[in-house]
Amino acid sequence: MSGFSVEWLALRESYDLRARNPIVLDAVAAAFGSRDALRIVDLACGAGSTVRALGPHLPARQHWDLVDNDPRLLAVACSQTFNDDVTLNAVPLDLSSNFAAALNGAKDLITISALLDLVSEAWLDRFTRHVVAHGLCVYAALTYDGRIALSPADPLDAAITSAVNAHQRTDKGFGPALGPAAAAAAISRFKALGYSIVHGQSDWTIGTADEEIQHELLDGWVSAASEVKSLPRPDIDNWLARRRSAVEARVSTMRVGHVDFFATPSVMR
Ligand SMILES: C[S@@+](CC[C@H](N)C(=O)[O-])C[C@H]1O[C@@H](n2cnc3c(N)ncnc32)[C@H](O)[C@@H]1O
Predict the structure, then answer these.
(1) Ligand 1 in contact with 257 (CB < 6 A)?
(2) Cα distance between the two ends of the chain
Protein backbone atom coordinates (compact mmCIF):
# COMPACT_ATOMS: atom_id res chain seq x y z
CA MET A 1 0.00 0.00 0.00
CA SER A 2 1.45 3.37 -0.90
CA GLY A 3 1.51 6.39 1.42
CA PHE A 4 -1.81 7.94 0.43
CA SER A 5 -3.54 5.08 -1.38
CA VAL A 6 -7.30 4.57 -1.01
CA GLU A 7 -6.52 1.17 0.55
CA TRP A 8 -4.16 2.60 3.21
CA LEU A 9 -6.54 5.44 4.09
CA ALA A 10 -9.39 2.92 4.43
CA LEU A 11 -7.25 0.67 6.66
CA ARG A 12 -6.22 3.47 9.01
CA GLU A 13 -9.65 5.14 9.22
CA SER A 14 -11.04 3.08 12.12
CA TYR A 15 -7.82 3.65 14.12
CA ASP A 16 -8.01 7.37 13.35
CA LEU A 17 -11.66 7.49 14.37
CA ARG A 18 -10.97 5.80 17.69
CA ALA A 19 -7.90 7.98 18.30
CA ARG A 20 -9.45 11.43 17.69
CA ASN A 21 -9.24 13.30 20.97
CA PRO A 22 -12.75 13.59 22.51
CA ILE A 23 -12.00 16.82 24.40
CA VAL A 24 -10.86 18.50 21.19
CA LEU A 25 -13.89 17.15 19.31
CA ASP A 26 -16.17 18.46 22.08
CA ALA A 27 -14.53 21.90 21.83
CA VAL A 28 -15.20 21.99 18.07
CA ALA A 29 -18.80 20.89 18.60
CA ALA A 30 -19.36 23.47 21.36
CA ALA A 31 -17.93 26.31 19.26
CA PHE A 32 -20.51 25.79 16.54
CA GLY A 33 -23.40 24.24 18.49
CA SER A 34 -25.63 27.31 18.18
CA ARG A 35 -25.20 27.69 14.40
CA ASP A 36 -27.77 26.59 11.81
CA ALA A 37 -25.29 25.89 9.06
CA LEU A 38 -21.52 25.67 8.59
CA ARG A 39 -19.11 26.19 5.70
CA ILE A 40 -16.10 23.94 6.19
CA VAL A 41 -12.90 23.48 4.19
CA ASP A 42 -11.09 20.16 4.64
CA LEU A 43 -7.47 20.56 3.51
CA ALA A 44 -5.84 17.36 2.18
CA CYS A 45 -9.13 15.52 2.57
CA GLY A 46 -7.91 12.16 1.28
CA ALA A 47 -10.88 9.81 1.01
CA GLY A 48 -13.03 12.09 3.19
CA SER A 49 -12.54 10.59 6.64
CA THR A 50 -12.86 13.95 8.42
CA VAL A 51 -16.37 14.47 7.02
CA ARG A 52 -17.35 11.09 8.45
CA ALA A 53 -15.60 11.67 11.78
CA LEU A 54 -16.51 15.31 12.43
CA GLY A 55 -19.80 15.72 10.56
CA PRO A 56 -21.93 14.04 13.25
CA HIS A 57 -20.57 16.53 15.85
CA LEU A 58 -21.60 19.61 13.83
CA PRO A 59 -24.93 21.33 13.06
CA ALA A 60 -26.94 19.36 10.50
CA ARG A 61 -26.53 21.78 7.58
CA GLN A 62 -22.94 21.51 6.38
CA HIS A 63 -21.22 22.56 3.19
CA TRP A 64 -17.76 21.03 2.77
CA ASP A 65 -15.08 22.08 0.30
CA LEU A 66 -12.89 18.97 0.05
CA VAL A 67 -9.37 19.89 -1.09
CA ASP A 68 -6.67 17.51 -2.31
CA ASN A 69 -4.19 17.23 -5.15
CA ASP A 70 -5.05 13.57 -5.81
CA PRO A 71 -8.06 13.32 -8.16
CA ARG A 72 -8.63 9.66 -7.30
CA LEU A 73 -8.95 10.42 -3.58
CA LEU A 74 -11.12 13.45 -4.28
CA ALA A 75 -13.50 11.28 -6.32
CA VAL A 76 -13.77 8.79 -3.46
CA ALA A 77 -14.27 11.57 -0.89
CA CYS A 78 -17.03 13.21 -2.94
CA SER A 79 -18.83 9.94 -3.66
CA GLN A 80 -20.00 9.76 -0.02
CA THR A 81 -23.72 10.24 0.31
CA PHE A 82 -25.40 11.96 3.22
CA ASN A 83 -28.80 13.55 3.62
CA ASP A 84 -29.66 16.71 1.64
CA ASP A 85 -28.32 18.94 4.43
CA VAL A 86 -24.71 17.90 3.78
CA THR A 87 -23.16 19.04 0.51
CA LEU A 88 -19.66 18.24 -0.76
CA ASN A 89 -17.61 20.15 -3.31
CA ALA A 90 -14.35 18.80 -4.77
CA VAL A 91 -11.46 21.28 -4.97
CA PRO A 92 -8.43 19.89 -6.81
CA LEU A 93 -5.47 21.93 -5.57
CA ASP A 94 -1.78 21.63 -4.76
CA LEU A 95 -1.68 22.98 -1.22
CA SER A 96 2.10 23.27 -1.18
CA SER A 97 1.99 26.33 -3.40
CA ASN A 98 -1.53 27.64 -3.12
CA PHE A 99 -3.40 26.91 0.12
CA ALA A 100 -4.87 30.43 0.21
CA ALA A 101 -7.02 29.71 -2.87
CA ALA A 102 -8.85 27.06 -0.84
CA LEU A 103 -9.66 29.51 1.95
CA ASN A 104 -11.18 32.28 -0.18
CA GLY A 105 -14.72 33.34 0.60
CA ALA A 106 -16.68 32.96 3.82
CA LYS A 107 -15.58 29.92 5.83
CA ASP A 108 -16.46 28.93 9.38
CA LEU A 109 -14.00 26.12 9.96
CA ILE A 110 -10.80 24.77 8.42
CA THR A 111 -10.08 21.10 9.05
CA ILE A 112 -6.78 19.39 8.40
CA SER A 113 -6.05 15.80 9.31
CA ALA A 114 -2.82 13.79 9.07
CA LEU A 115 -1.13 16.50 7.02
CA LEU A 116 0.69 18.97 9.27
CA ASP A 117 3.63 16.59 9.88
CA LEU A 118 4.32 16.75 6.12
CA VAL A 119 4.61 20.53 5.90
CA SER A 120 7.66 22.74 6.32
CA GLU A 121 8.26 25.42 8.90
CA ALA A 122 7.93 28.10 6.19
CA TRP A 123 4.58 26.67 4.99
CA LEU A 124 3.28 26.44 8.56
CA ASP A 125 4.30 30.03 9.17
CA ARG A 126 2.44 31.26 6.06
CA PHE A 127 -0.59 29.10 6.92
CA THR A 128 -0.90 30.24 10.56
CA ARG A 129 -0.47 33.89 9.59
CA HIS A 130 -3.14 33.59 6.87
CA VAL A 131 -5.56 31.81 9.23
CA VAL A 132 -5.07 34.41 11.97
CA ALA A 133 -5.30 37.36 9.55
CA HIS A 134 -8.71 36.06 8.40
CA GLY A 135 -9.93 35.10 11.89
CA LEU A 136 -10.51 31.46 10.89
CA CYS A 137 -10.90 28.45 13.20
CA VAL A 138 -8.77 25.34 12.63
CA TYR A 139 -9.39 21.75 13.73
CA ALA A 140 -6.13 19.88 13.09
CA ALA A 141 -6.27 16.16 13.85
CA LEU A 142 -3.89 13.23 13.88
CA THR A 143 -0.56 14.98 13.47
CA TYR A 144 2.16 12.37 14.10
CA ASP A 145 4.35 13.45 17.02
CA GLY A 146 7.29 11.02 16.89
CA ARG A 147 6.24 8.59 19.63
CA ILE A 148 6.23 4.90 18.73
CA ALA A 149 5.83 2.36 21.54
CA LEU A 150 6.10 -1.31 20.61
CA SER A 151 5.52 -4.35 22.75
CA PRO A 152 7.22 -6.72 23.29
CA ALA A 153 10.22 -4.38 23.37
CA ASP A 154 13.15 -5.04 21.04
CA PRO A 155 16.69 -3.66 21.47
CA LEU A 156 16.52 -2.00 18.01
CA ASP A 157 13.15 -0.24 18.51
CA ALA A 158 14.68 3.10 19.57
CA ALA A 159 17.15 3.19 16.67
CA ILE A 160 14.41 2.34 14.15
CA THR A 161 12.11 5.00 15.64
CA SER A 162 14.87 7.55 15.43
CA ALA A 163 15.53 6.66 11.76
CA VAL A 164 11.79 6.84 10.99
CA ASN A 165 11.62 10.26 12.63
CA ALA A 166 14.63 11.45 10.64
CA HIS A 167 12.81 10.34 7.48
CA GLN A 168 9.69 12.21 8.65
CA ARG A 169 11.71 15.42 8.45
CA THR A 170 12.61 14.97 4.76
CA ASP A 171 10.78 16.86 2.01
CA LYS A 172 7.24 15.58 1.42
CA GLY A 173 6.41 18.19 -1.21
CA PHE A 174 6.22 21.23 1.05
CA GLY A 175 9.96 21.70 1.72
CA PRO A 176 11.85 20.06 4.63
CA ALA A 177 9.05 18.60 6.75
CA LEU A 178 8.48 19.47 10.39
CA GLY A 179 7.64 15.80 11.02
CA PRO A 180 7.32 15.05 14.75
CA ALA A 181 7.78 18.75 15.64
CA ALA A 182 4.77 19.90 13.61
CA ALA A 183 1.96 19.85 16.18
CA ALA A 184 3.97 21.62 18.89
CA ALA A 185 5.18 24.17 16.34
CA ALA A 186 1.64 24.88 15.10
CA ILE A 187 0.25 25.20 18.62
CA SER A 188 2.98 27.58 19.73
CA ARG A 189 2.61 29.70 16.57
CA PHE A 190 -1.14 30.04 17.01
CA LYS A 191 -0.69 30.93 20.68
CA ALA A 192 1.97 33.52 19.83
CA LEU A 193 -0.48 35.07 17.35
CA GLY A 194 -3.11 35.40 20.10
CA TYR A 195 -5.23 32.31 19.40
CA SER A 196 -6.80 30.02 22.01
CA ILE A 197 -5.95 26.34 21.75
CA VAL A 198 -7.54 23.14 22.99
CA HIS A 199 -5.24 20.19 22.39
CA GLY A 200 -4.70 16.58 23.38
CA GLN A 201 -3.16 13.31 22.29
CA SER A 202 -4.84 11.14 19.69
CA ASP A 203 -2.66 8.05 19.66
CA TRP A 204 -3.36 4.99 17.59
CA THR A 205 -3.77 2.02 19.92
CA ILE A 206 -3.21 -1.15 17.99
CA GLY A 207 -3.92 -4.51 19.56
CA THR A 208 -2.63 -8.04 19.07
CA ALA A 209 -5.48 -8.91 16.67
CA ASP A 210 -4.78 -5.95 14.35
CA GLU A 211 -2.35 -7.82 12.13
CA GLU A 212 -2.96 -6.02 8.84
CA ILE A 213 -2.18 -2.52 10.07
CA GLN A 214 0.80 -3.79 12.08
CA HIS A 215 2.32 -5.36 8.96
CA GLU A 216 1.66 -2.18 6.96
CA LEU A 217 3.28 0.00 9.61
CA LEU A 218 6.31 -2.30 9.88
CA ASP A 219 6.78 -2.23 6.09
CA GLY A 220 6.49 1.58 6.05
CA TRP A 221 8.94 2.00 8.92
CA VAL A 222 11.46 -0.38 7.35
CA SER A 223 11.28 1.45 4.05
CA ALA A 224 11.75 4.84 5.80
CA ALA A 225 14.60 3.57 8.01
CA SER A 226 16.35 2.02 5.00
CA GLU A 227 16.20 5.29 3.05
CA VAL A 228 17.80 7.18 5.93
CA LYS A 229 20.75 4.75 5.89
CA SER A 230 21.67 5.29 9.54
CA LEU A 231 21.47 1.54 10.31
CA PRO A 232 23.03 -1.50 8.64
CA ARG A 233 20.46 -3.14 6.33
CA PRO A 234 20.87 -6.61 7.95
CA ASP A 235 20.02 -5.10 11.36
CA ILE A 236 16.83 -3.60 9.90
CA ASP A 237 15.90 -6.89 8.20
CA ASN A 238 16.48 -8.88 11.41
CA TRP A 239 14.39 -6.40 13.40
CA LEU A 240 11.58 -6.75 10.84
CA ALA A 241 11.71 -10.54 11.06
CA ARG A 242 11.50 -10.43 14.88
CA ARG A 243 8.63 -7.96 14.83
CA ARG A 244 6.72 -9.88 12.14
CA SER A 245 7.04 -13.06 14.21
CA ALA A 246 5.55 -11.23 17.20
CA VAL A 247 2.64 -10.00 15.06
CA GLU A 248 2.02 -13.47 13.68
CA ALA A 249 2.16 -14.95 17.20
CA ARG A 250 -0.45 -12.33 18.17
CA VAL A 251 1.64 -10.92 21.01
CA SER A 252 2.51 -7.59 19.36
CA THR A 253 0.90 -4.27 20.28
CA MET A 254 1.69 -0.77 19.05
CA ARG A 255 0.98 2.78 20.14
CA VAL A 256 1.68 5.56 17.65
CA GLY A 257 1.64 9.11 18.97
CA HIS A 258 -0.51 11.84 17.43
CA VAL A 259 -1.81 15.22 18.56
CA ASP A 260 -5.13 16.96 17.84
CA PHE A 261 -5.84 20.64 18.40
CA PHE A 262 -8.55 23.23 17.86
CA ALA A 263 -7.33 26.78 17.31
CA THR A 264 -9.73 29.70 17.58
CA PRO A 265 -9.50 33.49 17.65
CA SER A 266 -9.80 34.65 21.26
CA VAL A 267 -13.05 36.37 20.26
CA MET A 268 -15.03 34.27 17.78
CA ARG A 269 -17.00 36.00 15.04
C1 LIG B 1 -2.13 11.02 5.30
S2 LIG B 1 -3.25 11.52 4.07
C3 LIG B 1 -4.56 12.19 5.07
C4 LIG B 1 -5.88 12.19 4.36
C5 LIG B 1 -7.09 12.59 5.22
N6 LIG B 1 -6.98 13.94 5.72
C7 LIG B 1 -7.27 11.62 6.36
O8 LIG B 1 -7.10 12.01 7.53
O9 LIG B 1 -7.57 10.44 6.09
C10 LIG B 1 -2.51 12.98 3.41
C11 LIG B 1 -3.31 13.62 2.30
O12 LIG B 1 -2.59 14.79 1.88
C13 LIG B 1 -2.76 14.92 0.48
N14 LIG B 1 -1.67 15.77 0.00
C15 LIG B 1 -0.34 15.53 0.10
N16 LIG B 1 0.35 16.54 -0.48
C17 LIG B 1 -0.57 17.42 -0.95
C18 LIG B 1 -0.49 18.66 -1.65
N19 LIG B 1 0.70 19.18 -1.99
N20 LIG B 1 -1.63 19.29 -1.98
C21 LIG B 1 -2.84 18.77 -1.65
N22 LIG B 1 -2.98 17.60 -0.99
C23 LIG B 1 -1.87 16.92 -0.64
C24 LIG B 1 -2.69 13.49 -0.01
O25 LIG B 1 -3.21 13.32 -1.31
C26 LIG B 1 -3.51 12.78 1.06
O27 LIG B 1 -4.87 12.77 0.73
Answers:
(1) no
(2) 43
Tell me the best of 1, 2, 4, 256 to mutate to test the pocket of ligand 1, counting ligand atoms within 8 Å of each CB and taking the most.
4
Sign of the alpha-carbon torsion through 187, 179, 202, 22? positive
- CA 258 – CA 202 distance, rounded (Å): 5
Q: Which atom of ligand 1 is nearest to the CA of 42?
A: 6
Domain total of the chain? 1
Q: Is the model's pLDDT at 9 over the cut of 80?
A: yes
In a domain, residue 13? The reply is yes
The CATH number of the domain holding residue 212 is 3.40.50.150
Residue 1 in any domain: the answer is no
Predicted TM-score (pTM) of this structure:
0.97
Compute the chain's Rg from CA coordinates.
Answer: 19
Residue 130 maps to a domain: yes
Instruction: List the domain range (segments joined by +) for residue 68.
Output: 6-265
User: Nearest CA to 154 among 78, 31, 17, 246?
Assistant: 246
Q: Quick check: 117 and 146 in contact, CB under 8 A?
A: no
**Side chain identity, residue 239:** W
Tens-place pLDDT, residues 225-247: 999 999 999 999 999 999 999 99
Phi, psi of 208, deg, nearest 5 = -60, -25
Kindly state whether residue 85 falls inside one of the protein's structural domains: yes
